[in-house]
Amino acid sequence: MPDVFDYHQGDGPVLISFPHDGTDFPPRLEPLFNEHGIKNTDCDWFISDLYQCILDRADSSFIKPRFSRYVIDLNRAPDGELLYPGKMETGICPVTTFDGAPIYLPGNQPDDNEIRTRIETYWQPCHHHIHSELKRIKDRHGFAILWDAHSIRGEVPQLFDGVLPDLNFGTAGGRSCGRELIDQLVQHANDASSYSVVLNGRFKGGYITRHYGDPENRVNSIQLEINQSAYLEDSEEPQIDHEKARQLSRLLQALIHLAINLQC
After folding, report:
1. Element (DSSP H or E) covering residue 257
2. CA–CA separation, 61 and 14 (whole Å)
3. CA diameter of the chain
4. Strands 5-8 and 61-65
5. What pLDDT tens digit does each residue of the chain (264 aa) get?
6. What DSSP state is assigned to residue 228?
7. Cβ(67)–Cβ(122) under 8 Å?
8. In contact, 139 and 73? CB cutoff 8 Å
């Protein structure tokens, strides 16, 4: 489904997903959004660029959607189940930014029929592919690692208090990844860098992490939510800071390499 997502099939045991990397809007839907929507404010800006050194390797598999999370949020459940009950969160077809600003022109919010159409058109193909690829990887290697790559602004008062740590690992409270594996990854991140690190803090992993992680059957799923200040410039418009990004990319490469070695 090249019109919905980009995918590369590698030879290795890791699948990296970028569910909020998309920036496009389908021609049918683009006229429905206002300036906040078209600006794509809550994109995980340049997140795949951070992983480029890993994606360039022939053994790396990855899936990247083409379309903005405002069209469909691939990291939300299709039945509307909440990830963090009692906390503010956007749905599978968001209608506001993280800051609460409307993203649609008046009267253009998606109704139930439109939401079902988007799920069938954009959400289901991506998740069918993730499911089939994890099965392929596990059949080949005896295990699979799903690395769900995210980033977010460091200060979003509607979502969390204060400033977010630099590296936020999530394993659904320990259900999506084996304890020894995630403990060693967190330990390495602490020991090998000056970044602030937390495990299962404000972000414990979204639908992808929770749905596909099955450590008892050797499918470990990990979400890493990165504070964008760790690799973006301090500017009004998102701009990558290449020196910061190079430093962070080296750590990401080491973490994924370590995850593979710990499972072999």
Report:
1. helix 242-263
2. 6
3. 54
4. antiparallel
5. 448 999 999 999 999 999 999 999 999 999 999 999 999 999 999 999 999 989 988 798 999 999 999 999 999 999 988 888 878 889 999 999 999 999 999 999 999 999 999 999 999 999 999 999 999 999 999 999 999 999 999 999 999 999 999 999 999 999 999 999 999 999 999 999 999 999 999 999 999 999 999 999 999 999 999 999 999 999 989 999 999 999 999 999 999 999 999 997
6. G
7. yes
8. no
Q: How do the domains of the chain map onto residue ranges? A: 5-263
Whole-angstrom distance, CA of residue 174 vs CA of residue 147? 15
Model confidence pTM above 0.90? yes
Q: How far apart are CA 146 and CA 7, in angstroms?
A: 14
| Residues 204, 175: Cα–Cα separation, whole Å | 10
Instruction: Tell me the C-alpha distance between 168 and 160, whole Å.
Output: 13
Distance, in Å, from the CA atom of 76 to the CA atom of 82, rounded to the nearest integer, reads: 8
CATH architecture classification, 5-263: 3-Layer(aba) Sandwich (3.40)
